Amino acid sequence: MQHKSWIIIGTIYATLVQVCLTLGSISGDHKIVSLPGQPKVNFQQYGGYITIDERQHRALFYYFAEAETEPASKPLVLWLNGGPGCSSIGAGAFCEHGPFRPSGDILVRNDYSWNKEANMLYLESPAGVGFSFSANKSFYDSVNDELTAQDNLEFLQRWFTKFPEYKGRDLFITGESYAGHYVPQLAQLIIKQNVKFNLKGIAIGNPLLEFNIDFNSRAEFYWSHGLISDSTYESFTSICNYSQIRRQSTSRSLTPVCSGVIRQVSREISNSIDTYDVTLDVCLPSILSQAQVLNQLQDTEKIDVCVEDETDKYLNRKDVQQAFHARLVGVSNWTFCSDVIKYEMQNLEVPTIHVLGELAKSGIRVLVYSGDQDSVIPLTGTRTLVNGLAKELGLNTTVPYRAWFGGTQVAGWTQVYGNILSFATIRGAAHEAPFTQPKRSLVLFSSILAGRTMPESPSLTEH
Amino acid sequence: MQHKSWIIIGTIYATLVQVCLTLGSISGDHKIVSLPGQPKVNFQQYGGYITIDERQHRALFYYFAEAETEPASKPLVLWLNGGPGCSSIGAGAFCEHGPFRPSGDILVRNDYSWNKEANMLYLESPAGVGFSFSANKSFYDSVNDELTAQDNLEFLQRWFTKFPEYKGRDLFITGESYAGHYVPQLAQLIIKQNVKFNLKGIAIGNPLLEFNIDFNSRAEFYWSHGLISDSTYESFTSICNYSQIRRQSTSRSLTPVCSGVIRQVSREISNSIDTYDVTLDVCLPSILSQAQVLNQLQDTEKIDVCVEDETDKYLNRKDVQQAFHARLVGVSNWTFCSDVIKYEMQNLEVPTIHVLGELAKSGIRVLVYSGDQDSVIPLTGTRTLVNGLAKELGLNTTVPYRAWFGGTQVAGWTQVYGNILSFATIRGAAHEAPFTQPKRSLVLFSSILAGRTMPESPSLTEH
């Protein structure tokens, strides 16, 4: 019943959206007056659709938070989450480094918001993700990296028409996880097509760069962090080869022996472990949460492990969607990761590590960073890949592997090659690094923008 | 000047102590009325000296905290810290699982004190550690594992004379780090000499069991946790062999190349990392601490990383020493780790893993646990050792490697062999596990005492 009425509403919206898209080209109509429950702030926010393809009725939704202070002199940063198919507004803006985090009915200020350092542009991409859509649903059946990069470029070009004051601004493209594909591919397309953006650098966190090495390093990470036993580690690395597992399970050619090993791995790790952050607690179903609240002995957590649930509730509120100028088109709910897109999964196996090499050769600063508690795309594989790339490019180590500092404590480790290609870990951080280590992530972020190496020694005055 | 007067006072004390030791055999004279700054509690505390050797004027100091409730029906647990040469009262009682933790001038209640589950006996051992002493200082020149085990046994026998009501009580011997030598060796001696104690089990955390495997697993731990680079890891494992480094540096036969690698390892790890807990912040010198306090952005820490400093100050207060019935003999300060003992360092290389096997065969429950953030004696080496021992003994896996729960979250992983030999990790815990994970450590501790396997699924009501 409820479902049916949503379909009707969806259809009406689809029509309305089309009308709206043909309207105004000024940024005024996208201005967000105020998000429900937000504290008062001094910076401007915008949200709305940019049409990518008028004929196909395809439009991408963005959320733009101008810098807290002096936006005119600060760079423009595009942020993309991965998946493929997950929302940059849900994850990036509301769980990681946006100006606010949802807490019950209200939004609370994030003290380590990246818009302290830059004008932050969060994009739901490709169409079908979050509030972005294609009215022609056949688009969803064959989305791939190439289409995503093209649409993202188209978005940027049209967005600059709407916000011309940002056209010549220093531009950084950033993202994480599967954006290890999106980010370098978009940057590559900009260079290839000789688009006149002022692209200065890219930064990608816990990125998928090269399927085999990224996924093969999981077994070692599990074992060295105590998640699986000696004997299972042995089977996992001898009987199964992780890079084959994904391929084999797609083609349904997994051997029964290896299937058994995988079941054993899952059993040992346990369902109550967030493999995206092996040391963080997990968000519990409400009956368990209730027991927690009632219990006096429960530690208070600095990290809200249920922030995804809260974001989901917040972004599904009608008043919130209205404030954002967002609509649900062809779906009944806003979701963290799309359930309508059929992404070309073979694209996962396309290596992007060499694209980073091309970018570095073109003078684009490249930073690859790893939250070090992530077992899904572990630092060990990523570090090996960047190190190997530097060797291939003949780039000398310009900053030797060393600790970097966020304030007075070690915030991670870093190595720089040829003053252009950097690797950094963030200590105690998850797959979504700014979620669990917001302060350290902000230090890292501001270093990238400034083209500085990470702080070398403890600073008395905190960042 | 101050130093001189301490020597005089020390001499007077030495004489007094001797007199005291020949006095009363009742426990009353060791009863602690109240420790300075402590909150009101309902359990009894005792502190004092047990003479080990009248002729040599050698006496061991203990602190005994009876169980919070129903002490008469709860087991007796001896706790030993390692080093060799470090204090069980300073580390075990005041930083880890004692009833109180120092905080400025006062003591605050530890909600996860092990005396909730047992009568806890903390022993400063061998003589020369903490408040324990040998008036005949020549003892300090040749302390070794054999002497330590003998003295610890002598202590227990004489202590039972003083506290006869504990004689037949279920007894557990526990400890950590170098107590991976002390604990099994003491248990072995009890069995060998057929002493009539009711020894039920032993538990050792992050223990030194087998020099080569324990120390060789460091390189891998450093690398997999992002503390050293790919290239340094390669040099570390190919040019140097960690088990040789210790031997070679003792015999001053370290090759210059390997010395270089070690310097590189140290440089990359950084001085600001606590290798006993690679994710924990470090305690900062006062000038930096001051900056921290002044700074609004500083996160509040749940763990007081400066608790060792506070313990040092507390145990060096005269009123505290008086309340404890403790004296400084032959030293001017109480110290965390002894600077008078010359321990036989070759003993580090004596393997104790097979002693665990003997104990298990004698029906003594054996638990080996690892705080999983410790790079000094990493879980990877320890797990391999226990696994190997189980194979040697022909013990089948009775509990397969799986997560265990502290309340509603995964608290670590465990595996049990033959219902007698157990391995467990404590998630997010340091070398001194109960320091960083007090709640999880208490769950583990109560499981050992009860002879239960670790909780298998999340419990709604917290422990």
Automatic annotation (TrEMBL), chains A, B:
Transmembrane residue ranges: 6-26
GO cellular component terms attached to this protein's record: extracellular region; vacuole
EC class of the enzyme, as a word: hydrolase
GO MF annotation, one: serine-type carboxypeptidase activity
Subcellular location(s) of the protein: Secreted
Gene3D superfamilies: 3.40.50.11320, 6.10.250.940, alpha/beta hydrolase (3.40.50.1820)
InterPro entries listed in its UniProt record: AB_hydrolase_fold (IPR029058), Peptidase_S10 (IPR001563), Ser_caboxypep_ser_AS (IPR018202)
EC number(s) recorded for this UniProt protein: 3.4.16.-
GO biological process, one term: proteolysis
UniProt KW Membrane keyword: yes
Entry keywords, A to Z: Carboxypeptidase, Disulfide bond, Glycoprotein, Hydrolase, Membrane, Protease, Secreted, Signal, Transmembrane, Transmembrane helix
Family assignment from sequence similarity: Belongs to the peptidase S10 family.
Classification via PANTHER family: CARBOXYPEPTIDASE, SERINE PROTEASE FAMILY S10 SERINE CARBOXYPEPTIDASE
Task of the protein: Probable carboxypeptidase.
Name under which the protein is recorded: Carboxypeptidase
Taxonomic lineage from the root: Eukaryota, Viridiplantae, Streptophyta, Embryophyta, Tracheophyta
